[in-house]
């Protein structure tokens, strides 16, 4: 048995990587204020070519914070953000935090049903929402508790020439504009410009404490029910510091990060919203990943740091080769959210000359806990070694007090300053996930080599990871079962060629029904986000069940894989 307390992985750290980080002493508000002071004339944000300096960013944050204060937002209040990647997202995030309030991030592509479930849980009274989806929030019944919806037109942050082009009386322009905004003010919503026109919030307005909750990030966690992970200023600031310590050769005030990861996801939030801003980087924002937009941006502001997921690296490398666009400025690329195939590493590193390394984390670890060293000691095929100030154990999944040794499989436990403090209003789930001593149960089965590299073997939990997002099988099964032709359903993840998983379903039909795959998928689309809709739906006469009647999803999965 071995609790790895001697941290054998430290020998694999780069020469300039500290074994531990200093304990955070500044909140995220202090952090962004320091960046706006140190890099005041540098570009903080770029959006379709339009730029915002760090000084202007601070002014916008102070104005919106005062506007939110006038709407009644105060310390400890939850404020929902339902936005794609855009400058307003960054401003709103830090304006909420400036008041000591709590940001609750949401996927703007969620259906009304999915959003309502989360709003009912966190109880935010104010929501800052993309105008394209504002009506979904406005449609909530009064008992959900939302009193004010602030609508954001993201096209107003684009250059004048781009906005003008979007208004041309041609079909392509109309289609592009319709994908980005609505044509008229949203009835019943406050215009974002009302907040930006506010006076600056007074500097002596009380600031949050390090131990205050900064963000509620919804996750399916290690069980299937979405719940809000409580991330404090301390957690998120620590993870940004760990990220900076991990990457040798970072140039403060000079790096260019590409924000292709959605910032409503924990991975995009930390790598772009906090880490990038903490080092005075230029953050180039994309409302969604579009390889053409990304490669076009490389001509003006070439990326030097690209956090992404495996399919993005593969698509960019191939598209750049086809268009004869150089990717050689990208020195650092960190992949997460799904396994990284070695073939994609080879393709990317041939295209860029830089390194592509895999990391590992969870929403509950703010989110990064492990990473491959950015240097010769990296080991493709593993998720690397624990970050500075991070400890791990491998334990018996059924008896987490029993440690396992090198090269033995068991559940991965994590402890460090980035580990969350619990789930919002979920004491039972918190107690099941956080063990005495601050150890987080990951729900992942892993093994550790003698020199400390971690390989994820399997998941104890049954979540499906598709495109970097978690999908709870039970949620998709409920959607399928609400269709009159479905008597029973089991949802699993099938390995994808891109390294993640595809959502697949096995259904048992009601007597007299016939399988209509497209009808079932269309039904699911009315209840679920697109990425949760099964790609594959097959029929079986019955589902395998345990003696107590539980569907054996592993057998279902093995059956479908064998059938391929």
From TrEMBL:
| A Pfam family it matches | AMP-binding
Name the domain of life: Bacteria
Quick check: keyword Isomerase in the entry? no
Output one GO MF annotation: ligase activity, forming carbon-sulfur bonds
Every AMP-binding enzyme C-terminal domain range: 475-550
Official protein name in the record: Long-chain fatty acid--CoA ligase
PROSITE patterns attached to this UniProt entry? AMP_BINDING
- What keyword terms does UniProt attach to this protein? Ligase
State the organism of origin.
Glaciihabitans arcticus
Family annotation (CDD domains): FC-FACS_FadD_like (cd05936)
Does the record carry Ligase as a key word? yes
